[in-house]
Design brief:
The complex is a heterodimer. Chain A is of the alpha+beta class. Helices cover 21% and strands 30% of the residues of chain A. Chain A has two domains: 192 residues, Gyrase A, domain 2; 111 residues, Aminomethyltransferase beta-barrel domains (Elongation Factor Tu (Ef-tu), domain 3). Classes of the chains: A alpha+beta, B mainly alpha.
């Protein structure tokens, strides 16, 4: 079942119900100021643009993996890793007494559907019209009460539909119907997480729980050292002292499991914090927290404590079909007329 | 650590440093070298390069390392992160040593 789901994400299109994502709307006179104080990245967003960042605690450990969407004067927050009430409290705790913000939990009134795959755009265009094809990455638009967001964490074309709860079931059924000619599958969180792992997308439920800062996680591109925010001091201090470990991607022919020790010549050099079997590659992918001296791609001298040889690699470990599929040229129905490069790398 | 492994890691680190410097000097990426992690995406999210930058990156890497970037579908695969660019440089250097 998981194999079919992963295959759909990699080769056609998959539909997912995103109940694990919390949706909030920040509004009010000081919404920008409060968000800017909590967001570790430079908050340069125009209307309908969005960014991919984190929310940190005071020790600079990730609390949530978030997309911030600038919606006129308001901000939509799509977050994984925190409950809606926790997220609401987080923003309110950063609000000064004289400031005014309103935090609405959209998860109560709205649901989120996600389409991922090299032909996800084709399913969505059948529902919303061909203009969705031109929607740039990390932007969104409203259509009636539905918000269509171009994002995704699988390395393939990815679209999220935020829509009222009463529309959810009907829209889901319609997408399944429209996706039938494209062999659309329903994909669960496990399949999405495996694809995210293959494409080096951060997982707040795995490596995000390993007590690490964005420096060890190789997520410095999501933070700025030029502004004040929650966790900024701790992060600057970690940068000054230098990390002792760094997250490193590796592959293995035999089973890898979270918690496995990684060794070099019998000596422990790190531990796996995320791992899973890739049905696309037919091997195991892992993320290991390795001592910085050993955290290097292209090394095949390491093994697990169960003596399984591993090779450190440069992710992504998939040659995403979406990189080679153009909505202007291709369609799922004519895919056999084109020769695409193999999905496997290395 | 075995000297052979140590040398291999050092060589990659040196290549990564040179790629980072290309990004900063030629593509005007406003980051300090230590802020550019090896597996940071270059396009889309991450450093946020665009298609114009891609042309500049190809030219800059040819000048810096004397490598010809693959002008096919696999070219896109090699330009995904700093580390994938380092893979290409290392492959090129090993090819020259074995020739």
């Amino acid at each position: 079942m998981l194999e079919k789901q992963e295959s759909a994400i990699r080769r056609s299109a998959a539909l997912s119900l995103m109940d694990h994502v919390v949706c909030l709307r920040l509004s009010g006179t000081n919404a920008f100021e409060v968000l800017d104080r909590t967001c570790p990245a430079e908050l340069h967003l125009r209307d309908t643009q969005m960014m991919y960042t984190l929310l940190l605690d005071q020790a600079a450990r990730p609390l949530a993996d978030v997309f911030i969407c600038c919606d006129d004067e308001d901000f939509l927050i799509l977050a994984e890793g925190m409950e809606a009430a926790q997220l609401r409290d987080y923003f309110l705790s950063q609000t000064l007494p004289a400031e005014h913000i309103q935090v609405d939990d959209l998860s109560q009134s709205h649901g989120l559907l996600s389409l991922n795959g090299p032909y996800a755009w084709e399913v969505l265009a059948a529902l919303l019209g061909p203009e969705v094809i031109g929607l740039p990455y990390l932007t969104f638009f409203h259509l009636g009460q539905t918000t269509c967001i171009r994002a995704g964490k699988t390395g393939e074309y990815g679209y999220d539909l935020l829509l009222p709860r009463e529309e959810l079931e009907k829209t889901q059924a319609r997408l399944i119907e429209l996706g039938q000619p494209l062999d659309l599958e329903l994909a669960g969180l496990e399949a999405l997480e495996q694809c995210a792992l293959e494409n080096w997308f951060f997982n707040i439920r795995r490596e995000g729980k390993a007590d690490l800062t964005p420096i060890e996680l190789q997520l410095q591109w999501r933070v700025s050292y030029q502004k004040e925010y929650v966790g900024a001091k701790a992060l600057a201090e970690r940068r000054r002292t230098g990390p002792r470990q760094r997250l490193t991607c590796l592959t293995a022919a035999d089973k890898l499991a979270v918690g496995d020790e990684i060794q070099y010549q019998g000596q422990g050099i790190g531990q796996l914090v995320n791992a899973g079997f890739s049905h696309t590659r037919k091997d195991y992918i892992g993320l290991a927290l390795l001592d910085t001296a050993y955290a290097c791609s292209g090394i095949d001298a390491y093994q697990t404590s169960a003596l399984i040889p591993v090779r450190t690699v440069s992710p992504p470990v998939i040659n995403n079909r979406s990189m080679h599929v153009s909505p202007q040229l291709h369609s799922y129905g004519t895919r056999d007329q084109f020769e695409f490069p193999p999905l496997l790398i290395g | 650590m075995d000297p052979k492994l140590s040398t291999k890691i050092q060589q990659r680190d040196q290549i990564l440093d040179r790629v980072r410097q290309v990004l900063i000097d030629n593509l005007k990426v406003r980051r300090e070298p230590d802020e550019i992690d090896p597996d940071t995406p270059l396009f889309g999210t991450g450093i946020g390069l665009d298609s114009v930058d891609a042309v500049e990156l190809v030219v800059s890497l040819e000048v810096e390392f004397g490598i010809q970037m693959p002008n096919d579908a696999m070219g896109r695969v090699t330009m995904r992160t700093v580390n994938t660019l380092a893979d290409l440089v290392i492959e090129h250097q090993e090819g020259h040593q074995n020739a």
